[in-house]
């Protein structure tokens, strides 16, 4: 129970990586708050996380809307009695190199992290330290011909993580990023591509030296490590979790 009675807020926690992270913290004794846009998925996630017997707060929040983020953070802090860890997980998945793609990536992948972190900082400071974990992507570490806006936004997340870490170090707030490779989970991007674009799915699978797609739990385990006392001297880092995919 590494996180017994700790307070963890996961932005975008109703499915996939966010849900796995929230469940991982709850299994280790944390009380968890999550948000997402869809009410049905949010309620299912709340029940799933709550199966570990820990307090769970869930509320709808459109992470493209700054006002909703500003309202959710203090509401979550009030429900949990404080905040020790903030996980910025959501993505707008801006894939198309047009106004729509760039707008989705900017508003969710970048500005949701900026806004949530700024709103959370005073609460993390009030508790004499804390941890912020930003979910980036290996797409932000190389050129992309399929998803330019998404890749550029994730590159910005990696850089902003370093800036956050430098800015918040005096308050003993550690800030790190995780860059997943191709992660497959029900309803996720690679689950859909398995059906809609099997050629790309198989080509990507073949590019991963470990011979499989990652799971949401692969990322959750690293998030728990980064938020734990075992990572107490780690800040401003981007941890790649990709089964060697970037090596190809």
From TrEMBL:
GO molecular-function term, one example from the UniProt record: oxidoreductase activity, acting on the CH-OH group of donors, NAD or NADP as acceptor
Q: Which GO terms describe its biological process?
A: fatty acid elongation
SUPFAM superfamilies named in the record:
NAD(P)-binding Rossmann-fold domains (SSF51735)
Q: Which InterPro entries match?
A: NAD(P)-bd_dom_sf (IPR036291), Sc_DH/Rdtase_CS (IPR020904), SDR_fam (IPR002347)
Gene3D superfamilies from the UniProt entry: NAD(P)-binding Rossmann-like Domain
Q: Return the similarity comment.
A: Belongs to the short-chain dehydrogenases/reductases (SDR) family.
Read off the PANTHER family from this record.
3-OXOACYL-[ACYL-CARRIER-PROTEIN] REDUCTASE, CHLOROPLASTIC, SHORT-CHAIN DEHYDROGENASES/REDUCTASES FAMILY MEMBER
User: What name has this protein been given in UniProt?
Assistant: SDR family oxidoreductase
The scientific name of the source species is: Acidiphilium acidophilum
